[in-house]
Amino acid sequence: CAHGSLEDPKSVTHHKLIHAASERVLNDAKTILEENIQDQDVLLLVKKRAPTPPPTMADVSAEEKKKQDQKAPDRDAIFRATANLPSHNMDRAEVQTNIRDFQTELRKILVSLIEVAQKLLALNPDAVELFKKANAMLDEEEDGRVDEAALRQLTEMGFPESRAAKALRLNHMSVPQAMEWLIEHAEDPTIDAPLPGQASPGGAQAEAAPEAATEAAGTSTGDEEPRDELTEIFKKIRRKREFRADARAVVSLMEMGFDEKEVIDALRVNNNQQNAACEWLLGDRKPSPEELDKGIDPDSPLFQAILDNPVVQLGLTNPKTLLAFEDMLENPLNSTQWMNDPETGPVMLQISRIFQTLNRT
């Protein structure tokens, strides 16, 4: 038979027979009787698809080169490429800078106000009881604050409600991170164990109370020493929350070519907002992560105006205000909740008004 014809054995292996009525591929090793082929049946001879050849080293190298070519440019490369271009939309850029400055200044204000509130509470003769109350309120808030919509999403996926609530508390009410936590700890024997604050709602308070009383009792000499001791007590009962970067945002930004550490820093500075983090990475990268924990200049007109406000002064003596500042410092997305709170909302409103007034002047 001629090479390349249908009778050529090398060509036959590259074709297959299909029974048209049943759309069934016939087995080459079986006979017509075994395949139950009848007279007048229609058979189709179809060419088989050639298998995809494995990639060669040249293809792999080309793919790597393509990835390098598509990698996001760094700041120096952007400056070199745009050095000769004229500037546009200067007013718009100025507005964006003002917004970013407001977020930066607000964080600095909270850091400094926390220090002032600690000192004011330390001057109160019932300071120890106030700190115990603050600790109990923190436990109560932590136990009761579960986003119902987020909880419903997880339970609809099939997760038990108790586990879903625990995962949400541990992951700042983030549904994607809570889901990842539930999957990772599905086989953990302690997954159903309640959180420390839940196991005994008064446990943290009871634990802090003797310590607070002991600390206060041993510092009855002098005026400054009790304040320092009470400040230390507050630091011990204060629950600092570790920053958790949004997993999807991390992956998206790393796919643009940025290093993981840079991405996490950007998300921390910009409160897990992916677009703002991307602008930070491509811009001057200010504020830096190190600046997040610095307070505002105590002698600045802005801070003095805030401290002179009667509503703020009254709020700083309330332990709940102190807890609100701490929560917003670590979880900026919770600011809306505290703005709507009848005790902390007026304080936050006054701070916002003072900032906007001085920012315009």
TrEMBL record:
InterPro entries tied to this protein: STI1_HS-bd, UBA, UBA-like_sf, UBA1_UBAC1, UBA2_UBAC1, UBAC1, Ubiquitin-like_domsf, UBL_UBAC1
Name of the protein: Ubiquitin-associated domain-containing protein 1
Region: Disordered, residue numbers: 50-75, 190-229
CC annotations in GO: cytoplasm; ubiquitin ligase complex
Listed Low complexity bias regions: 196-221
GO biological process, one term: protein ubiquitination
SUPFAM superfamilies xref list: UBA-like (SSF46934), Ubiquitin-like (SSF54236)
The keyword Acetylation is assigned to this record: yes
Entry coiled-coil feature ranges: none
